[in-house]
Amino acid sequence: MQISDIETQLKELGQGATEAIAIAESLEKLEDLRISYLGKKGQVSKILGAMGKLSPEERPKVGAIANEVKQAIQTNLDEKRSNLQAAEIAAQLEAETLDVSMPGVNRSQGKIHPLNGLIDRALDIFVGLGYTISTGPEMESDYYNFEALNTPPDHPARDMQDTFYLPDGNLMRTHTSSVQIRYMEKQEPPIRIVAPGRVYRRDTVDATHAAVFHQIELLAVDEGLRFSDLKGTIKEFLRQMFGDLPIRFRASYFPFTEPSAEVDLEWNGKWLEVLGCGMVDPNVLQVVGYDPEKYTGFAAGFGVERFAMVLHQIDDIRRVYASDLRFLQQF
Ligand code: DAH
């Protein structure tokens, strides 16, 4: 084998490689070409295998040419690779363009239950009036639910609020008024709190009564609080909640307030009772260690379901608990 033969073969190989690389149309194809030309058992190596037969003086010359050819093939491969990669990305971008005019997929989304929404709204109003939020347990002792609220065991007012008694002597609270005592035991006046929560009654269930329902309790104790403060607070709250619906204060009785009142809203041509309220009875202040000569207070208990009926025109309270989506989705 002549040195000129090897030279010619190498140059032809280089030429062939340039053409093959130029027409390769995929990265896989390009990789096949690289292995075929430059791989350990590739065509360049094969030609160089014949170098053994050359004289020592000739070898470096052929080596230099081989390197040149290899280098050229490598450069071609690299260039082509980056071209193919760019083309691949361009094609991908083309295929994946976002059509912003496509109609969206409607996914149904959970929302807040109308009762919770109403509680949130009411609490927001009171927070705006300077009240803070407190809570208490639903399972209560007789003491917090009745006794401390000036309602001893033989008191006739217990009749209205007969409830679920537990085997251990505790009961399910009949009203959120129990939170009043729990809060006052821990804090000194002045206080202004609202306490939302679930309450239990052994009521006959009908369109306007449920065995479990929700109340928001309100309590303010300070020096010099008067009935007019109570009236102003409640009127302002109802105004923010319902706008200008007609309301009336009606004299009433609760063991833990004196004097006491109930407030009705005019709704669908009828008066609907929505809350009880009054000036905190001095006995209640005394029970928690407040001096009734120094402090006075007012309190109220709002029926959340009654609010819902008025605000959302719900004729039957039982619908609110039925978990019927056809009903709930209207809010
Ligand atoms: N706890 C009473 C009830 O459930 C409502 C009530 C009346 C709460 C007067 C009060 C109040 O705080 O002052 O019927």
What would your notes on this structure say?
This protein is an alpha+beta fold. The chain has 2 domains: 3-96; 114-328, Bira Bifunctional Protein, Domain 2 (BirA Bifunctional Protein, domain 2), CATH 3.30.930. It contains 11 helices and 9 strands. It has a 7-stranded mixed beta sheet, with helices on both faces. A hairpin with a 2-residue loop joins strand 6 (247-254) and strand 7. Helix 2 packs antiparallel against helix 4 and helix 5 (114-128) packs across helix 10. The radius of gyration is 44 Å and the shape is rod-shaped. The mean pLDDT is 90. Bound molecules: 3,4-dihydroxyphenylalanine (DAH). 3,4-dihydroxyphenylalanine is lined by residues 175, 177, 217, 254, 257, 260, 276-278, 299-301.
Short recap of the structure:
The protein has 331 residues and is an alpha+beta fold. It is built from eleven helices and nine strands. A hairpin with a 2-residue loop joins strand 7 (257-267) and strand 8 (270-280).
* Secondary structural class: alpha+beta
Task: Please report the first level of CATH classification, the CATH class of the largest domain.
Answer: Alpha Beta
Task: Please give the number of β-strands.
Answer: 9
Please name the CATH topology of the largest domain: BirA Bifunctional Protein, domain 2
